[in-house]
Amino acid sequence: MAIQDIKSKINDNKQEKERKLLNTALHLFTEKGIKKTSIQDIVHEAGIAKGTFYLYFKDKYELQDVLLAKTSHEFFANACKKANQHHFDRLDDKIVFIIDSIINELIDRPNILKFIQKNLSLGLYSEKLTDLLDSEELGIKELFIREVKEKDIPLEYPEMTLFMIIELVSSTVFTSIVEKQPLPIVEFKPHLYKTIRLLINEKVEK
Questions:
Q1: d(CA 142, CA 78)
Q2: Domain named HTH tetR-type: which ranges (predicted)?
Q3: CA distance 166 to 158
Q4: What angle do helix axes 185-201 and 158-178 make, rounded to 10 degrees?
Q5: 53, 22 in Cβ contact below 8 A?
Q6: Cα 174–Cα 193–Cα 191 angle in degrees, nearest 5
Q7: What is the C-alpha to C-alpha distance for residues 204 and 77, in angstroms, rounded to an integer?
Q8: What is the pTM of this model?
Q9: Cβ-based neighbour number of residue 25 at 10 Å
Q10: What is the CA radius of gyration of the chain?
């Protein structure tokens, strides 16, 4: 077997172990909670030696951070794929569609919602995702900035506008779904979407 083939096999094996740790930890964290889940629980269910765990993660809290970022990123990626199957003349319509898709998925997956809580924005801004993402994938940040330019939308700082939108969604949706405050999510959505549209369509003062 060639040296390159050996290296490739070793790398595939490492990635598979990391995937097992991530998938197993997500299952346990959402079922039992992070406080009641030990590293031993994770490696036992994953079928991986405990010493191997520390080759990938410092502790279960670093693993939790990676999972939060990865899981929330997947929500955005899936919603963007759905949006790309439709034609939108307006950027605000497209962003509202993406946000609505994410909210509906969170409603349908209460265990994941409980795990993510108000950390949805980690899927866009966490440095922990660097080695886990497809470099060719067009995320919501790239999509937003590209369409602002293509549609000649007068936003002075597009990335900051998107950051405010995602932070707004992240900080309010969990409370609306779980605690029904300030309104149940069905009643809250129109107010949220109106604010998102205002942020995107705000005119820049000259």
A1: 15
A2: 15-75
A3: 12
A4: 170
A5: no
A6: 75
A7: 29
A8: 0.84
A9: 25
A10: 20
Q: Assess contact for 107 and 177: CB atoms under 8 A.
A: yes
Q: Is residue 65 predicted with pLDDT exceeding 50? A: yes
Please report how many Cα atoms fall inside a 13 Å half-sphere around the Cα of residue 26, on the Cβ side: 17
Give the C-alpha separation, 109 to 100, whole Å.
14
3-class state of residue 7 by DSSP: helix
pLDDT digits (tens, 9 = 90+) for 121-167: 887 776 655 555 554 455 788 889 898 998 888 888 999 999 999 99
pLDDT band at residue 200 using 50, 70 and 90 as cut-offs: very high
Residues 6+ apart with CB under 8 A from 170: 118, 119, 120, 121
187 is written with which tokens? Answer: 């009643």
42 close to 28: Cβ distance less than 8 angstroms: yes
Which residue, 89, 169, 168, 74, is CA-closest to 66? Answer: 74
- CB burial class (10 A; 0-12, 13-18, 19+) of residue 57? buried
**What is the DSSP code string of 113-126?**
HHHHTT-TTHHHH-
What pLDDT does residue 137 have?
Answer: 53
Residues in the chain: 206
Query: Kind and range of the H or E element at 138?
Result: none
